[in-house]
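One example copied in:
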Amino acid sequence: MASNDFTPNRRRLVLACGCCALASLATEAVAQRNPPSEDWRATLLQDKRELWLVRDEDELRATYWTATTGFNRDEYQNICWLLRDKRAGRIFPIDRHLLDVLCGVQTWLGRNGHQSPIQINSGYRTMATNRKIEGAARNSQHILGKAADIVVPGVSPVKLAGMASLFGRGGTGFYVGKDFVHVDSGDDRIWIDQRRRTG
């Protein structure tokens, strides 16, 4: 898994410019993580990588990689199916780095006493589906199988966005007034959409 430079000060500065509450909760998440080693992100993923995902009526627990057996293609395909474009009925190879982002955040939460599935609102999207999503970027990472819009029951979107951004692998989007957070394995960036949509 390729690593990005971990720059918490820069990340917190960006967060503070967009939303002070997000910055403070991101800082709180860092304080709670109790890193077991200098590279705490790698430690979260070193033994096994598993996901507990829920999407509508579907629930999946999948271990897609372990240190002893390596990558599990069958489990990976099950994850790709859950993250498919449901509207178009299309399955797409999901970027493994995105799975590592989801796994890292879920493992981090679990080690801090919060055992809960990640609810998937949106995963892979065809270009046709993406065009129908209000506010979706034309070059969305969803089209590349590199993004998911997620909810973790019992974790506020602000705190979830802070944790995802501090995990430091790709993009994090926080939408004021919405209950989900966008995470992706594209370029390292953070954005906050403060437009309050209704309806």
Summary: The longest strand covers residues 58-66.
